[in-house]
Amino acid sequence: MSIPPKFDVEQWPTRIRAALRGTSPRRETANALFAGAPAVYAPRLRHLAPSNPVRAAVLIPIVEAADEATILLTQRAVDLKTHGGQISFPGGRCEPENEEPHATALRESEEEIGLAREFVEIIGFLPDHLVISGYQVTPVVGLVRRGFTLTPDPVEVADVFEVPLSFVFDPSNHRTRTRKFPEGEIEIYDLPYGDRSIWGATAGMLMTLYQMVSGAAEQ
I want to staple 138 with a disulfide (CB 3.0 to 4.6 A). Which of 57, 69, 71, 84 is the partner? Predict the structure, then answer.
């Protein structure tokens, strides 16, 4: 059973909290998912894992609302050296490397988009995702209450926008495309939204969240 495309305001916080209850950062590289790819492909892609990945964390900000919850996303500045122009979550590398993921996610969110941490309630973690460019990213899920103001850093962020949670959790909006590797073809996730395309690590993390919440709804 999948989560319906639109569920009432009293159900979604309960389902997300239930799915993430008791989760903690799982930072073992062997158990990490590959960003953007379904978990079934992990054994085939294991050799692509960075041997000494840089630890990083992102915040998945779920903005609470009386009518429709949303997920806050950024579009990276086009002239950045890595992942320029891509849709992403606020986040970055852990400084120092042993910094707790939630501390990294909150700090980077303040620096990148000006989201004050007092508006964020951390409710859980997704499994780490490996990015072939050399990072192992811990997704930190937070509920964000309304009333915040944003001041994006123009050096890093071109735009900040919100996507309805019902859109992300509607299976009819989930797209896959084929990517070729020497070991064969795999499918990766895309989430087209208007004139934007959410793909790669960001799409993979959103799909992981959807799958965890969908599983909790079936129990």
Answer: 57
Of 129, 122, 120, 125, the closest CA to residue 25 belongs to 125
pLDDT surpassing 60 at residue 72: yes
Alpha-carbon span 168 to 5, nearest angstrom: 8
- Alpha carbons within 13 A on the beta-carbon side of 186: 18
Q: How far apart are the first and last CA of the chain?
A: 10
Superfamily designation of domain 12-212: Nucleoside Triphosphate Pyrophosphohydrolase (3.90.79.10)
The DSSP-derived string for 125-172 is: EPPPEEETTTEEEEEEEEEE-TT------TTTEEEEEEEEHHHHT-GG
Average pLDDT for 177-203:
81
- Which secondary-structure segment (H or E) carries 181? strand 175-181
Q: What percent of the chain has pLDDT over 70?
A: 82
Q: Is the model more confident about 128 or about 11?
A: 128
Contacts of 73 (CB under 8 A, 6+ apart): 87, 88, 89, 160, 161, 162, 163, 198, 202
pLDDT tens-digit map of 75-87: 987 665 555 568 9
